[in-house]
Design brief:
The protein has a 7-stranded parallel beta sheet, with helices on both faces. Strand 5, helix 5 and strand 6 form a beta-alpha-beta unit. It starts with a strand and ends with a helix. The mean pLDDT is about 95. It is of the alpha/beta class. It has one domain: NAD(P)-binding Rossmann-like Domain (Rossmann fold), CATH 3.40.50.720. Helix 1 runs parallel beside helix 2 and helix 8 packs across helix 10. The chain is built from 10 helices and 13 strands.
Length: about 325
């Protein structure tokens, strides 16, 4: 089977690509190695795919909005049967700084990929990344797929919801079978340096202060990367029925845990106390997230397994090793 993975040098994309290759799939990966965070980390993830798997992995440096490049790639790989679309402009707060990058990657990129994908003769399933951010100002916990998602708290959230709606239209118009996955705070080794747990680890080790937002209810549904990978592959292998070609599923740890707990676990794993300063929560950030995962369990037989203490300990081990080199 030939599977296209977009954003293959990203955090989730690299892990998913490795998991697919390890089970014997042929993977075509694209990534533009964007400089939103250090491209050297992205290249290091990519190197773990290029060397060990040989010709089973084909990498093409490409932007997801490059319609001519994608058309040429699809023409050269007509046997693509499945797509895992993870390329996106990430980062909630950065959408205040460069909104155009989010509209380009997350909206135009979705259209560009779907336009090419609907012409692939053997494609039977496209899985794409959405986000828990789409739940926006919804205060009903846990978040369920049927909840309102028309009150985004950031442009990032608005672009991810737009991508969902665009995919729904393509499912309706072209019978393109798709599953959108709403990821909840994915963390672990080889993670994104802009995410809080990674930035906190760097600050703790360096003896620099970290910022915690005020309020007793600040909590996140922290989801470990290995669990996420298993979930993505299970969903990818569970193709929607042609009569119902589009669906949306949460993929989370089904626990809303205090950010302060995550900090204390980092302190224990890294052997240093954090220097904490308090700040008001910015309007882009919601107070708490919590995923209902009944639907993905029913459809794909998936459930999270990794507790936060275990996942943070694994991340800390990797963090020390990676930043010691």
């Amino acid at each position: 089977m030939t599977i296209l993975v977009t954003g293959c040098a990203g955090f989730i994309g690299a892990h998913v690509s490795q998991a697919l290759l390890s089970r014997g799939e042929h993977v075509v990966g694209i990534d533009n190695l964007d400089a939103y965070y250090d491209p050297r980390l992205k290249q290091a993830r990519l190197d773990r795919l290029l060397a060990p798997f040989g010709t089973a992995f084909r990498f093409e440096p490409m932007d997801i909005t490059d319609k001519d490049g994608l058309a040429a790639l699809f023409a050269s790989e007509p046997a693509i049967t499945r797509i895992v679309h993870l390329a996106a402009q990430a980062g909630v707060r950065h959408s205040l700084v460069d909104p155009y990058a989010y509209v380009s990657a997350n909206v135009l990129g979705q259209v560009t990929l779907l336009e090419g994908a609907r012409r692939l003769p053997r494609l039977d399933h496209l899985v794409f990344a959405s986000s828990s951010s789409v739940y926006g100002l919804n205060r009903s916990l846990p978040f369920r797929e049927g909840d309102r998602v028309d009150m985004p708290s950031s442009l990032y959230a608005a672009t991810k919801r737009s991508a969902e709606l665009i995919s729904h239209a393509y499912g309706h118009l072209f019978a393109l079978r798709q599953t959108g996955l709403r990821f909840f705070t994915v963390y672990g080794p080889w993670g994104r340096p802009d995410m809080a747990y990674y930035a906190f680890a760097r600050a703790i080790v360096a003896g620099e202060p970290i910022t915690l937002y005020e309020g007793e209810g600040l909590a996140r549904d922290f989801t470990y990367i290995d669990d996420v990978c298993e979930g993505v592959l299970r969903v990818l292998d569970t193709v929607p029925l042609s009569a119902h070609p589009f669906r949306l599923l949460n993929i989370g740890n089904h626990r809303s845990e205090p950010v302060a707990l995550m900090v204390s676990l980092l302190e224990a794993a890294l052997g240093r106390r954090a220097l904490i300063r308090r700040s008001p929560r910015p309007p882009t950030d919601i107070e708490a997230t919590w995923a209902s995962v009944e639907a993905i369990g029913d459809i794909a037989g998936w459930a999270p397994r990794t507790r936060l203490a275990e996942g943070i300990a694994r991340f800390a081990t990797w963090f020390r090793e990676f930043h010691a080199t």
